[in-house]
Amino acid sequence: MRLLQTLYKFINEKPDYIILTVDENTYTYSDIKKNMDKWKLVLERCGIKKRYKVVVYINEIMDFVGIYFALCELDCIMIPIDVSTHPDVITSVLYSSNAHAVISSQELVLNDIKERIPVLLEYTCYCTGKGEIDTTDDIMQMLYTSGTTGLPKCVMYSKENMANNILVLGEALGLSEKDVIYTPISLMLPAALNTVLMPALLSGTRIFVSKSTIPGKVLSNVITQKVTVFFAVPFYYKLMADSELCTENTWKNVRLCLTSSSYLSEEDFLSFYKKSVQGLHSIYCSSEAGSIAYNDATDIASLRKYVGRPLHGCEISLIDENTEGEGEIVVKGDMISSKYYRNEELNNKVFYDGWIKTGDIGAINETGYLEIKGRLTETINIAGHLVNPLEVEQVIMKNEAVEDAVAYKYQNYAGNDMLGVKVVMKQGHSLQERDIIKCCETALPNYKVPKKVLFVSSIDTGRYGKKKRSV
Fold it and tell me: Which UniProt key words apply to this protein (predicted)?
């Protein structure tokens, strides 16, 4: 297994190299090996066998890493669930995945558990007693998507899929022993696990972890830890840009500011750039396709506009293109997931002929850079015309009196779908509904012009700043 081989290379060649700092505690590759061996023994004593599926729901990063590689050595399947997930969700995950066990740092109320085994003082292993092995021998991880509707869906990644995701991204980012990487995002979230933690750990890049997510403290850590690579979701860059500590001097040691997960507006990009003199480099990922593209551009215009070019071993194309060269982004390559677990309806919808439909709308320029235009599922059908709400929002946001905006669908008295927008005004400015409609009329065709404008104090968002398009 390539991931284990890479880890052992560092363990054997640099056992005393400090690879992980958690606040004031430091850990070497030798410490990781000891922790991995400890957890391997614990898991075996709990009855965990080859090809068993294990849900991991813990809050300590060092133990998380130990379990990760112990499960690799035991040839088991890891199902990582971030501790911010409500415990009730674990019940759904446990039974929808047919998992054999749960390792948890929290007390859980679970039905039909055969055995509850306390381990290492602060953890519990919940064993289901199931013996069925229903995945192929190559599966390494089962990842649950966050999903905006319904229960989360589970995708499966093989050992080679995961190795390609992690090692190729590390190479693309140029991660090395000269770097210190830091993120305020939980490293146990699947997105950060495979884009930050593992690429860094398996390239010799020092990882700094702090439990504080307060922007001021995070910015202070960037300075004191001499961070060279920083990762955050777009919403967090917006929070940092509002801090007085966000200055060019704060970021003087940083060579890469990375972002992923959701759309980054031009205003937020430029706001952070003006304060930090750092352009944000996008990593384009999807739950089903893994790490797809990386923006290695050096000019600000390209960094702002594109999410990057395909990573090594990845191919990107568009289907159902319109006259403007926009279409649904499809992906194939060495890093994509195998399929959804026990969900043939979704498998038939998303996977076809070796390709994965991402559900994202995009365009590719002449040099191969990919631009995200929106989500297919968020497209609004207005009298047979498909409207990308992101395009409408971008037009409205150009008005200097607008702080934020979100487009949404509503029904008129006749039951027809109509386009509306919610707008947040900047302090000290005044706007009327007609002002918003007029700016849209000058830039958009009539079917993309909103028929209703609501002025609100704020826009509802999800956990990572994604706007909610509800009435």
Answer: Ligase
Q: What is the pLDDT of residue 153?
A: 86
pTM above 0.70, yes or no: yes
Residue-averaged pLDDT of the chain: 92
Neighbours of 286 (CB within 10 A): 20
Q: What is the pLDDT of residues 217-241, one digit of tens each?
A: 999 999 999 999 999 988 899 899 9
339 Cβ neighbours under 8 A, 6+ residues apart: 155, 156, 347, 351
Q: What is the CATH number of the domain that holds 77?
A: 3.40.50.980
* Whether residue 395 sits in one domain with residue 363: no
Q: Is residue 18 part of a domain?
A: yes
Confirm whether 314 is domain-assigned: yes
180 and 286 part of one domain: yes
Range of the domain at 307: 160-368
In-domain check, residue 298: yes
How many domains does the structure of the chain reveal?
A: 3
Q: What CATH number did the domain enclosing 436 receive?
A: 3.30.300.30
pLDDT tens string 161-204: 999 999 999 999 999 999 999 999 999 987 799 999 999 999 99
